[in-house]
Write a structure and sequence with these properties.
This protein is an all-alpha fold. Helix content is about 80%, strand content about 0%. The longest helix is centred in the last third of the chain and has 32 residues. The radius of gyration is 23 Å and the shape is globular.
Length: about 280
């Protein structure tokens, strides 16, 4: 089968979320470092592609940048990585389905947050600042402008933007789980991710690269970054856990009918068989 049904995706995702929370701490940290770096590289590619585009192109520039950004999430989901926004959907789903404790969920999300931050920060400093890929000319101007737009949002705006972002990113992860082929996974990842970037929603891990990249060049402050990080983190969690995980749990995984005991099921089957036999004789 080339693709799973929504019910199968829900079951697979809950199982995957449980496994993610059971990885050794060292594995979680390494995989989350890689994921943070991959997302940062996708964003770096976005910036390098669009920074020198003519202003006359208007919103087409955003679409072009959005079209290359998904490379980062593709590397995470196919190459291997633990990304906070994806885990904010899969691990809460496992928790809602009673496969995990709340403590295990919070531990996993905390570890992945740390690992993603270190990975994104590494790319921002080593490739952006030291190598100079975001440190001069039109590339620096683009980084400062984009970071400024993220920091301009107030707490409520950043929170709601975070919801919109991870509603789409978590769906990208969900669609990738639905496919059994690499090409199907790439397509499932690409379009929802492209949509969130083109719209301009706030992604906590992408911001872990963008805003520090601007800070390393002398713009903005770490205090401003923290005030952006908190609402975006909470918004991303809400988008993934509530709008995707909880919504699909209600539809596909919640037990809406009382379970029938095995002996009762056997009795019902025997009665139905006898009734059919009697009906056949009468006919």
């Amino acid at each position: 089968m080339a693709a799973k049904t929504p019910l199968e995706v829900a079951q697979y995702t809950a199982q995957t979320g449980m496994k993610k929370a059971q990885y050794p701490v060292s594995s979680v940290l390494v995989l989350s470092f890689l994921a943070g770096a991959f997302i940062a590289l996708g964003f770096l590619l976005d910036i390098r592609v669009i920074a020198s585009a003519p202003a006359e192109w208007g919103s087409l520039v955003n679409l072009i940048g959005a079209a290359v950004f998904p490379v980062g999430l593709i590397m995470v989901l196919i190459g291997g990585g633990e990304l906070l926004t994806g885990n904010m959907m899969a691990v809460p789903l496992a928790t809602i389905a009673r496969k995990l404790s709340v403590g295990s969920m919070l531990k996993n999300l905390s570890l992945v947050t740390i690992g993603n931050f270190v990975g994104a920060l590494f790319v921002a400093y080593a490739f952006g600042h030291v190598l100079g890929l975001t440190g001069e000319g039109v590339y620096l101007a683009k980084v400062v402008d984009m970071a400024g737009h993220k920091l301009h949002d107030g707490f409520l705006q950043a929170f709601i933007s975070g919801i919109g972002c991870n509603w789409l990113v978590a769906l990208a992860v969900w669609l990738s789980y639905a496919s059994d082929t690499m090409s199907g996974k790439v397509l499932g990842i690409w379009f929802p991710t492209m949509a969130f970037v083109a719209i301009g929603f706030q992604h906590v891990v992408a911001n872990m690269f963008l805003i520090p990249a601007a800070i390393f060049e002398g713009h903005y402050s770490w205090g401003q970054y923290v005030m952006n990080f908190i609402p975006v983190w909470l918004g991303n969690l809400t988008g993934g856990a509530l709008f995707v995980a909880a919504a699909y749990w209600v539809v596909y995984l919640r037990q809406t009918e009382p379970k029938v005991k095995p002996e009762a099921a056997t009795l019902i089957e025997a009665v139905e068989t006898e009734a059919r036999a009697m009906w056949s004789k009468q006919a």
